[in-house]
Each structure stands twice: as C-alpha cells, then as structure tokens.
Amino acid sequence: MMRNGIKNKKVILAVCGGIAAYKSIEILRLLKKAGAEVRVIMTQSAQWFVGALTFEALSGQSVFKDMFQEGSEASFRHIDWAREADGVIIAPATANTIGKLANGIADDPLSTFMLAVASPVLICPSMNTHMYANQAVQRNLDTLRSDGYVVVEPASGQLACGTTGPGRLPEPEEIFDRFLGCLSPKDLVGKKILVTAGPTIEPIDPVRFISNRSSGKMGFAVARAAEHRGAEVTLISGPTHLADPMNVTTIRVRTAEEMAGHVFQQMENADVIIKSAAVSDYGPKESEAHKIKKGKNELVLHLQQNEDILKVLGQKKKHQILVGFAAETKDLEKNATQKLAEKNLDIIAGNLVGSSDSGFESDTNTVTLFFKDGTTESLPTMEKLEVAHILLDRIATKVLRAAKAPKSTKN
Ligand code: CTP
Question: Is 161 a catalytic residue?
C-alpha cells in the first residue's frame, strides 16, 4: 500500500509539445523532492518547447525521446520502463497524444510505452479552449476515462494563444496532489470523514486573541490522505496559512464555539470523525468591543472553559468512529490513555511536542497510536501525510471492519 505515495517509487513523467511543457520541470522537482525516482519521456514536439537536457540534469537519467537511434540498450526501453513504473504522469497531454492513446496507436516512444503500462496513469490535458472543447478530443478523453486513466480537468484562465477558458495546465502542486491520489488505495470510497485542524483563536478585543502554536499541518494531511483514498471529506479548520485541500469541503472557523457548532451540525452525517484541532481550552469571559488601552501595571483577564467538543462527541456517538489527538509535553502514555477513556474514543494519536521534528509547525511527526482495546503502536518519525495514511489504515482495517462484523450469536 502506498504510504506517503511516492517515496522510492519509480515514476514516469511524460512531456508532450505544448506551451505548458515548462511547468513539467516543476512537477519533476516536486516528485524528486518527495523521494521518487523519475524517468522522463518526451515527444518530438515537446523538445521544441523545453530541452531534453534540462530533464536529464534534473532527473539524473537519460530522457527517452527516440525509439531507434540510441543504441541497443534503448530498444526495449518502452517495455522495461513500463514494467518497472509504479505510476505515470502525462503533463501536458496534447490532443494528438490523447487521440493516439484513446485509439491504441503506437508510433513514437510515449505512445508505444503507454501500450505496455499497467500502473496508474494521470493524464493532464492542456491546449487551446476550442481544441479542448472539440468533440473528438472530448470523445477520446471519455474513452481514456473508461479505460481507467485518471484525467485532470484543465484550469480556466487566459491561455498563451489569447483565448480565455479551460485549457490551462493546472499548477504543478495540484498535479502532484492528484498523482498521490492516483496511487492511493481507494478503500474509503463511500465513507464520510469529518476532520478538524488547526488552532482556534479566542478574541480578547478587536486586535488581540488567545491561541496556540498549531499549524494545522497534521489535520490537513489527514484530510488530503482520506480524500486520496476516496472518502468524502469535510474539513473544519481554525486559522492556518494552508490552502484548502483539493476536493475537500473546507469550512474555516475562528473560535472553539464556531468549531463546535459546525462539528455538531456535521456529526450525524459522518462515519469517522478525526479531531486533530488544537482547540483552545479557555477563552476570555468577555471579549471587549474596543481595543483595551494600556493603563494599569497589571491586567487580569478572566477566562472561562470552552466546551470539550470531542468529549461531547464521545457522549453522543452512535455509529461513528472517533479519533482524537493528544499533544503532550510529558507522560504521553498516561495522558493519552486517560483522554482515550474519558472521551470515549476508538483511537488517540499521541505525540510529544517540543522537538523540531515532531509537533505543531513541523512537517514530520513522531506519533504513538493508542487503541480502545488497550493495544498501542509506536510509529517512527515520518512525514505527516505518511502518519495520516497509517492512521487511516488502522481506521479502515481495525476499526471500520470491527464495526461491520456481525455480532456473535449465542445458541
Ligand atoms: N478537544 C476538543 N475540544 C476541546 C479540547 C480538546 O475537541 N475543548 C479535542 C482535541 O481536538 C483533541 C483532543 O480533544 O483531539 C485532546 O486535546 P488536548 O488539547 O490534547 O487535551 P485536552 O482534553 O484539552 O486536555 P489538556 O489540555 O488538559 O491536555
């Protein structure tokens, strides 16, 4: 099963001839940064837009661009690369290549290679709006979809040819994200997953607030991973700098009270609720309507406790699987297992905050999972997206399967 998607995986990046070919350089960079081994195939017309040398230098491998003129080693390259590939991205995909793939034509390295591919393929069309709307192109794309290829809708906007409309290659980050989804197992199709993320902020006056150091990265990673695996995901997030994950219904909130309102509204609908938000436990009893002016030497703020959203969910839960997070500075096991019991959770993911590779602002996390049945699982330090996938693995197998199992009948 793909964890963070593409670490150590063999990925083929195929580049066709279009203005957007320059964006493929950035796609290559993102793949390499994520730890993939990338090989590049270029069509002949792609080489008019970007030099093969650029891809060669960045991928560290020679580019496959000619069937017959690169020595005997190259003669079976289309078969070898297809056999070894864990996934393929075609970006930009031109109308010509789309037409060839839809009709099984094999007259250049890319189309010949594609006939031998058995791994997931992401096709990213990019062309003039009228070409994209053309019936033949749309018919070919429908064929490719029904053949099992994943097609990314082009973005809309002003195109290089001056036309405005759909046809632009989406941003490399978006293509990279869709490719991760393409490689993920689809074991959460039909499941509704509610995720919370980020901090909440509790206003003191119009310019000041109480909050915490949560970045939202863990919750956003959970939402992305769940969407990649086919779930219908709603994300309720406190203020963060992160962009809405693709295909996820994202609701932005500020206070614990707002978060509670949305979570309780969505609860009934959810199969799984994963609360990774760092909800402020206390907020000012009263928020001042105007900025508090500097005056006395000492200022006392009166705080009152916010509702514990997860605890209420635990009391109200029926069919839902409940997952909490516990960020602790000491006594991880004691604190996490106490929260697991008190909040009536199925799993709690605990981590010690404070080190640079684990916790709030970090891209990695060192998590221990504590399960309702008393078992625990300590994970090594890994990317938050990878942690999210492992958590979803456990939810999908251990918890969702147990919930589905028929009750034993006594005779
Ligand atoms: N949580 C919540 N509502 C709150 C506080 C916490 O839903 N008002 C949830 C968090 O989203 C998290 C879990 O409870 O999933 C544990 O949060 P944490 O802040 O670690 O624990 P608390 O219960 O607040 O206890 P303490 O702050 O004393 O450690």
Answer: yes
Residue-level pLDDT at 159 = 84
State residue 409's pLDDT score. Answer: 46
Is 204:290 a contact under the CB 8 Å cutoff?
A: no
DSSP character string of 348-388? EEEEE-SSTTSSSS-SEE-EEEEETTS-EEEPPSEEHHHHH
- Distance between Cα 319 and ligand 1 center (Å): 22
CB of 257 within 6 A of ligand 1: the answer is no
For the chain, which ranges sit under pLDDT 50? 1-2, 409-411
Task: Return the residue matching tokens 């759909």.
Answer: 166
Residue type, 71: G
Dist CA 231 CA 2 (whole Å): 16
The C-alpha atoms of residue 28 and residue 42 are separated, in whole angstroms, by: 13
Give the whole-angstrom CA distance, residue 351 versus residue 354. 10
Q: Among 263, 275, 337, which is best to mutate for testing ligand 1, by the most ligand atoms less than 8 A from CB?
A: 275
Q: Mind listing the domains of the chain with CATH numbers?
A: 10-183 (3.40.50.1950), 192-285+298-399 (3.40.50.10300)
Whole-angstrom distance, CA of residue 333 vs CA of residue 339: 10
Beta strands in 21-161 (DSSP E): 37-42, 87-93, 121-125, 150-151, 155-158
Q: Ligand 1 mean position to 268 CA, how many Å?
A: 21
- Residue 47 CA to ligand 1 center (angstroms) comes to 55
* pTM: predicted TM-score of the whole model, two decimal places: 0.93
Q: Ligand 1 centroid to 336 CA: how many Å?
A: 10
Instruction: For ligand 1, say whether the CB of 256 is within 6 Å of any of its atoms.
Output: yes
With a 6 Å cutoff on the Cβ, whether 277 touches ligand 1 is yes
Residue 2 confidence (pLDDT):
44
